[in-house]
């Protein structure tokens, strides 16, 4: 599937290689994005029995659209969904609906028409099937033919980032300055760290590394990753920082994922590939940097996190926010 009248074959032809990997850097900006969206959404059953979890609404648009908008605002011009059976609704949402568009146009329902035509202004979208799911690392590896020897972003759709902190844009800027790979870091408690990739880190000063002009970065926002472990027991948590939801990766990761053995849970873990990247020399595409998330993040793969996103986005909704706020204030809590 491909929206904006760009076929997957055209996209593969257009995926021009951005130069050889030298000192962990590639020429050109990060153009490609990958969105793993093949999960079953079992934590949201029965709601997700027939509806992809990525299509659950955040007020009046599906959660996946918020992620696509973020990718577009970050400057990505090619986005690949890794999907599975029963996920056709995701592809349909970012495609034309001629009959509906015509009906709205003839009824002069301009705002509604604009809302379903937003796909025209988003980055180009394509999709492939993961097949038999074998973990997040396996899902990301499915993008290797599409992305080629280019750096790329990975956006996990369960993580919604509030636009007040354009963390992906900052991560791309850090990658372009330092090379290697970049992960988003979240400050967590030791108990929370057991659910993520726990990272041992060393602070990277901004000025001496050419990062002082990156908009939105402050001292203490950027770290070198020295070690990372997927979902450690609480007594093996490495620090107060965990990797979550947004990654900008050197294509070296595809070579690693190709032969990476299953890890925790018998699945190919993307976090395990980060440890391999940490151990890889910088001139071979290695090295991993972390950028701390300073804005609001919502874990919409969790029921409580999803409710928090609904409330927060509802309060900020242009049309409904004021009335919704008044409603909440009137509740007898």
Q: Report the β-strand fraction as a percent range.
A: 15-25%
Net shape: globular
CATH architecture level-2 label: Alpha-Beta Complex
CATH class: Alpha Beta
The total tally of domains equals 1
Mind describing the biggest β-sheet?
5 strands, mixed, barrel
Query: What does the average pLDDT come to?
Result: 90
Q: Which ranges are low-confidence, i.e. pLDDT below 50, for 5 or more consecutive residues? A: 1-28
Please, could you describe this protein's structure?
The longest helix has 13 residues, at 303-315. This protein has one domain (8-301): Spore Coat Polysaccharide Biosynthesis Protein SpsA, Chain A. Mean pLDDT is 90; it is low at 1-28. The chain has helices at 8-14, 63-73, 88-93, 98-106, 110-116, 136-141, 144-147, 167-178, 190-193, 252-259, 270-279, 303-315, 321-329; strands spanning 32-36, 57-58, 61-62, 78-83, 124-129, 152-155, 159-161, 181-187, 197-203, 222-230, 241-249, 288-292, 297-299. The chain is built from 13 helices and 13 strands. By secondary structure, it is of the alpha/beta class. Strand 2 (57-58) and strand 3 form a beta hairpin. The strands form 3 sheets. A 5-stranded mixed β-barrel has the order 8-11-9-10-12.
